[in-house]
What does this fold into?
Amino acid sequence: MHVHILLLSDEILLIVLENLDYKALLACQATCHRLGIATKSLALQYKIELGACGMLDGRPGLQTTNLSQRLGYLKEYSSAWRQLKWTTNIQLPHLVGKVPSNSNVSLMFCPPNALLPRVFQTLPSKLRGTHEAHYSLAPQQYDLSIKVDPSQDLAIYLESPLQEQRTSCYRLQSLSTGERHPLAFSQGIDGLSIPAMYRAVLDVRGDLLLEQCHTILNERFYIVWNWMTGHMEFKKQTKPRNSRAGCRFLDDEHIILEVDAYGDDVDSSACLRVLPFRGCTDRTVGTVADATTYLFMLHPSMKRTGTVPESEAAMGPIASSAHFYGDHDGCLLSTCISVATLNDSTRDSEAILDVPSHTITSYMRHHPTTKQSVVLWDLWGPRGTRITWNPLSRNHVMGSYVCGMKRTMLKRIGNGLSLTVTDYHPRRVARALSRGDGGAIVPESDLKGSVCGGLSTTLPCLVSEKLIPDVLDQLSPSFTFRIGEDGIVFMALDVQDRTISRAWAQTI
Amino acid sequence: MPTIVSVDDSTVPGEGSSRLLLLVSSDNKHIVVEEDIMSRSRFISKQVEGFEATSQRHAILLPFSSFVLNKVIEYCSHYRGYYLLEDDPDAAPPGRSPVREWDQEFLDVDRNMLLRIIKAAHYLEIKSLVGSCARAIADMIRGKTTEEMREILGVENDFTPEEEHSPSSKCTG
It folds into this structure.
């Protein structure tokens, strides 16, 4: 007997679809009427909207709203971003120091003097069910690295005692109250001591903790640790001298390492490496051993594949740096590459590349034995990669943030600031096309290949752009800001005494 | 509802803790299996409770082939005596069905067979097997484009050319 998937009952079909992420659900929706209708259930619609907004569900038990209300809030939130409807300014405390970590709902101010308290500020959000609040913690430790995960109400620190900085230990704190996190009591990670390294970077994804440490020498190591199962994976690598490096989870099976080198090591300069790990999940993917894949060999490859205009390629850039942004779900990887020239800043330039990250992971799955390979740009496109080239504009893009199918970018326009929101969600783009619903439609021909969060599509994207007038008079070399999922935090810093002379947030 | 036929008690000599059940597949194959093995199936458990109320033993007719039924029995035999959260009617359902390595090998079958197993598991109310099958089907299409999904699932594009070129009608909601 032959059974066809379309002959399965709605109930079974729904159970199957619940196993898909929002990108796959959106692709599935466009296959045929039957599967299109099956994805219209409230639970799946919520999953799609949540993922497309780059969000995760909040803490269980804290949600006082039902699924239908939350879906309504999500739609309002998306609409507010598209139309750039801001809240009025939320004034933040005037503090000394910097903001080493911020999530969408909470900010942490760390004073330069370790003896002063840390201040946590929570921003109000109807969608997230949070209210404006702040609290402070008296310092006892020196922070090496901090990562927050609002979905678990978790702030995780790697810190050293003030008197003894040769060892460091983890501390898990509730983001909303500042007290010890419930996980701290049961998982054996809280208080665990490890030798202090030169610099450490943390990332958290569900039960997985990623820690990358650099020594001052040419080496670094990273650990992926599943604190629920206790499984730990350790890997040591060499790194280019004088390089900076970041790391984060790309998805449940891959981590991404960023190397940002300045001239010292041409072969490794400004590249992103994606590494699979196994053991921390039950599923085995690819090969872990030495499967270092050089995904981005940035500027030289770009020139060879002709993606950079010839006039720019002839400039002969002597240094490059790269920075990448990605959302929770690893949907869209956005990379900003700055190209500088010696003694002639007018010839500086930058390119911004948006690559659907599933393209990267699927490449790795299909090349499991690859030990090291250089992937040229033309292999990514034209289906996936979109390149925006900004000649003469080093520092033109002041900040960018990618979450879900939305990309937010703050750019310097003349003496002012402009916020651009690009929405790749196919349904919203389609609706805007049919109803003229906020934002400008950018034709596909202008995009040099469109990206819809990893979906192959012929749809254009939706671009909203707005000048931010309130900020114009604050522009100064000491001005700083953070873009997050819920808005922007602006801060004017007094260079003299490193005091934040004015700070405010505008949220959606 | 399954058709229930009376059977001779001597055909099913189950007594005590390991009673036997007679399952009859749609191709009329009679399969005797220990009740204990099939206790993971809520459907079978309810049937057995019904037998106890009427003090009569029955064969249970099932609307799928012996090939599929044997696969399900193999699954239930493997997990005999194991506690699986998804099959506990009193436990809160887990958010995502967990990946079990044995299940992945067990379900390494063609698409048609996978769909037949999930239908049977759903009929028999074996939630853990339904979850594993659903995950296996989802794994087949995850990360694929719409066109690739159509090919894998054997689905025809039934949108009209107008719907195809007018995304608003296809993507409403």
Q: What stands out?
A: Chain A has ten helices and 29 strands. The mean pLDDT of chain A is 67. Residues 254 and 361 of chain A are 8 Å apart (CA to CA). The first strand of chain A starts at residue 90 and ends at 91.
